[in-house]
Amino acid sequence: MNGFVYDVPTKVYFGKGVVEQLGEELKKYGKKVLLTYGGGSVKNSGLYDKVIGQIKAAGLHCYELSGIAPNPRVESVREGAEMCKKYGIDVILAVGGGSTLDASKYMAAGAKVDFDPWKFLSERAPIAEALPVVTVLTLSATGSEMDGGGVITNLATHEKLGRMEDILRPKASFLDPTLTYSVSPYQTACGAADIMSHIMETYFAPEKDLYMLDATMEGLMRTVVKYAPAALKDPCDYEARANLMWASSWAINGFVTGGKRHAWSVHPMEHELSAFYDITHGLGLAILTPRWMRYCLDDKNVGKYYDFGVNVFGIDPSLSPAEAAERAINALSDFLFVKLGLKDSLSAIGIGAEHFDEMADKAVSHKQINGFKTLTAQDVRKIYEMSL
Ligand code: NZQ
Ligand code: ZN
Question: Among 78, 98, 324, 383, whose CB has the most other CB atoms within 10 angstroms?
Fold first, then answer.
């Protein structure tokens, strides 16, 4: 069991109507705001008008950067960083899903340097400073609203690269579950798969950590299993949307990590799918995760699968560990592909084996993933094949 530092400094405003307090919060950081958002959902929902109202009422100057795409492009980051420098921006206000939030974080860092912000990802250039970022979240999925993560896509080089830095954590995040009522069933399902995966990547670990953290993760996963189908049934179910939203933040804000230090496995494999085929992150995770579980299962780690099956999916505790593990994998598949209705294979979304070697090599960073189970490029290739 390793020690750890717990430091999650993002201030969270949670609940119906919290955007009413946005102007007061933004004022703390200066006068000039760069408002960033995606492809138009914020305008359709009326959120844009509310945000602009807050900015104006607080007496702040607003500049805008829109059109941030899912799997956010490095071009948006470059544009935003340049705008920050040109207009002397004091704070970035990111309104949207993980893509808008992630891109805004690297704009915030890019504003402070003279080089291409892609180097933060491609060369891991140091991030010594960043503008403050405030977020209004509209999609429960990535946890970007409370973490220091950000993943950026460079389509020209087929690269989707991310990193985690505490300095990139948002200063404040506004989490109003009603803002997710308009999220489509497909994005709701993908978001749920992403939240599950964030927890599973930590939960399935080669070493033991605090029981309390494992129990917390099981509770978070049960929350997703219970409420994602409810949100699909009734998109305006406040209880469901609220539970998903807060679970999304806590899945990846660092709390459940405790002292675990192993690498994540499914995310690097998925990021190659997104980089080559521009698919939705949560969909790729959903397809890969049950296969990864099956591939990694062995006599030594079967107990973890047993706990997962019994404590998350309510599988009969009197079953043998091997049987419970099998049922746990099936229960997860049923949740993802039947209850959430996500496509269940790579071939079903038009992906073939043509880039598997290159993707596998990149997924292991040309070496191996030291995760729940050590995975070489060959292992990853096999998991891709199982997912076809
Ligand atoms: O662009 P708009 O018009 O806003 O539409 C978006 C987009 O089309 C739409 N949407 C968002 N909120 C909505 C809404 N539609 C209707 N009503 C609303 N309230 O949903 C679509 C997807 O948005 P996006 O931001 O791409 O989704 P998500 O939040 O899932 O973010 C995915 C990105 O985050 C990265 C992923 O790799 C991917 O690039 N991740 C970031 C992480 C982090 N920061 O720690 C960790 C994750 O593992 C993940 O890798
Ligand atoms: Zn994810």
Answer: 98
State how beta strands 368-370 and 32-36 pair. Answer: unpaired
User: What's the rounded Cα separation, in Å, for the pair 261 and 313?
Assistant: 26
Q: Which domains does the chain have, with CATH numbers?
A: 11-179 (3.40.50.1970), 185-386 (1.20.1090.10)
Give the separation between CA 189 and CA 164, rounded to whole angstroms. Answer: 25
Ligand 1 centroid–CA 209 distance in Å is 31
Is the Cβ atom of 38 under 6 angstroms away from ligand 1? yes
Q: Rounded to 5 degrees, what are φ and ψ at 63?
A: -115, 155
In tens, the pLDDT along 320-373 reads 999 999 999 999 999 999 999 999 999 999 999 999 999 999 999 989 999 999
Ligand 1 atom 34 nearest Cα: 98
Cα torsion for 316, 313, 308, 260, to the nearest 10°? -160
Does the C-beta of 98 come closer than 6 Å to ligand 1?
A: yes
Strand 149-154 vs strand 159-164: parallel, antiparallel, or unpaired?
Answer: antiparallel
Predicted structure pTM score? 0.98
Question: What tens digit of pLDDT does each residue of 114-151 get?
Answer: 999 999 999 999 999 999 999 999 999 999 999 999 99
